[in-house]
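User: Study the chain.
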Amino acid sequence: MDKEWLEEFPPHERLSIFIAGELADDEDNLRFEELSKSLGYANSTIPNRWMHFQSKIPLKHISGIAKFFDRDIADLLPLWVLQELPDDIDLYQSASRILSAREHWVISVAREVYLGYVEE
């Protein structure tokens, strides 16, 4: 995921801004309402608070948000870490090194081809 544009924003706001970017073409808020419902909310009151930086996005919703936007969790987890601990760059960098499912697949194939190693 290309996150360079997110670096213009304060670290603790980047996850919410990422979601806003994914919903940029949602002029009538239908997708935002769908996202809210897919996360188990009857209405968009709580997710709306996230978008206005009034409350944090819970970790339990990262999988659902990733699935809704057809993203890998590895794309969102570093942004969640920044939301929680914006000053801990070491933790953010560690979270950024998590492999996406596609990257893991490529590495697994390379291991099989070059090392004869098969993951169990």
Remarks:
- The radius of gyration is 17 Å.
- The chain has one domain: 7-115.
